Amino acid sequence: METDAKIYVAGHRGMVGGALVRRLRRAGFTNLVVRTSTELDLRNQAAVADFFAEEQPDYVLLAAAKVGGIQANSTYRADFLYDNLMIQSNVLQQSHRHGVRKLLFLGSSCIYPKLAPQPIREEYLLTGPLEPTNEPYAIAKIAGLKLCEAYRAQHGSNFITVMPTNLYGPGDNYDLENSHVLPALLRKFSEAAAQRLPQVTVWGTGTPRREFLHVDDLADACLHLLRHYDGALPVNAGTGRDITIQELADLVAELTGYTGEVVFDFARPDGTPRKLLDVSRLHGLGWRHRIGLRAGLEQVLTSADWLQATQAVATATT
Ligand SMILES: NC(=O)C1=CN([C@@H]2O[C@H](COP(=O)(O)OP(=O)(O)OC[C@H]3O[C@@H](n4cnc5c(N)ncnc54)[C@H](OP(=O)(O)O)[C@@H]3O)[C@@H](O)[C@H]2O)C=CC1
Ligand SMILES: C[C@H]1O[C@H](OP(=O)(O)OP(=O)(O)OC[C@H]2O[C@@H](n3cnc4c(=O)[nH]c(N)nc43)[C@H](O)[C@@H]2O)[C@@H](O)[C@@H](O)C1=O
């Protein structure tokens, strides 16, 4: 990849898109094209066609999507299915029409069957029923992956697909209802520590296991795959290690200095019991994660992004 190649990063204001932009800039890529969703709604077929005709990018990184945690996925089911189907269909079709040299599509570990054998290998896709809380999102992501495969098979398009585990890092969403577990716990425990609250409520039973990858590691993995991988097979991206939600809550309590009680709200869904990714394909391609969970969380809690996000939340609630 030449450093003056024109790269469209879709979703650059999001957590993953932001990390991709930072990583690409650090690697010397200067010709980045970005649009906010207000400037370009990727669900709009005609607008996406006009954009590609005007910009003619060489590479496309598709990090724009409707994204959220277990509650958002379960509540806004139509939006998660419709928005994601439209965004990816429009971007993939125009990337094909305009002869984009390579496209990277981001799926998710939730595309695999709810009770898949662990760790989850890429070939377990479509071998069993999905987790109901995020079935619409998973169906959309599976359709995206299959569309990449189909463009490659029918037209020879170099569309590659990456399936990340649960991510965290700068640019995360700290909304208490719609976010993923890690940002939610960081906020709940740090607020409880500051206000000396006697209890923090964690959703579900605390027994589900989750794997967490720092978003800067994911961005690095994506650049590695852009440079070194042209295959049809999807590639899992994770650390190969997971922990229970109870262990995660204990870790976040320790890091935020919270010493009160942790209670579990059994009325909230657990979701998938476990979704540890088998990352041997990615390791075989020469990439491994660098940022462990404790170090990654310490980095988040001392970052300018965290201070900004928590100040914005404090201002909005006073
Ligand atoms: N977060 C996670 O834990 C995981 C994420 N992923 C995948 O990574 C990708 C990025 O996720 P993440 O960065 O966390 O998500 P974010 O919610 O942080 O960012 C999503 C971005 O998508 C853009 N977007 C949403 N709808 C539209 C639209 N209609 N038109 C144009 N742009 C739109 C938004 O743009 P704007 O800000 O301009 O409105 C936003 O910046 C997704 O494909 C997701 O499935 C996969 C596994 C785990
Ligand atoms: C990345 C992935 O993210 C989603 O799947 P998920 O991993 O189930 O999502 P989550 O991070 O929101 O929850 C993980 C676990 O944690 C528990 N939990 C405890 N306390 C809080 C809490 O306060 N908030 C949240 N959100 N969860 C909590 C929660 O009950 C669950 O057991 C997919 O929908 C899909 O979008 C996807 O691809």
TrEMBL record:
CDD domains: GDP_FS_SDR_e. Its EC number is 1.1.1.271. NADP(+) binds at residues 11-17, 106-109, 141, 164-167, 180. Keywords: Isomerase, Multifunctional enzyme, NADP, Oxidoreductase. Pathway: Nucleotide-sugar biosynthesis; GDP-L-fucose biosynthesis via de novo pathway; GDP-L-fucose from GDP-alpha-D-mannose: step 2/2. The keyword NADP applies. Substrate binds at K188, W203, R210, D270. InterPro entries: Epimerase_deHydtase, GDP_fucose/colitose_synth, NAD(P)-bd_dom_sf. Residues 7-232 form the NAD-dependent epimerase/dehydratase domain. The keyword NADP applies. Pfam families: Epimerase. Belongs to the NAD(P)-dependent epimerase/dehydratase family. Fucose synthase subfamily. This is GDP-L-fucose synthase. It comes from Hymenobacter fastidiosus.
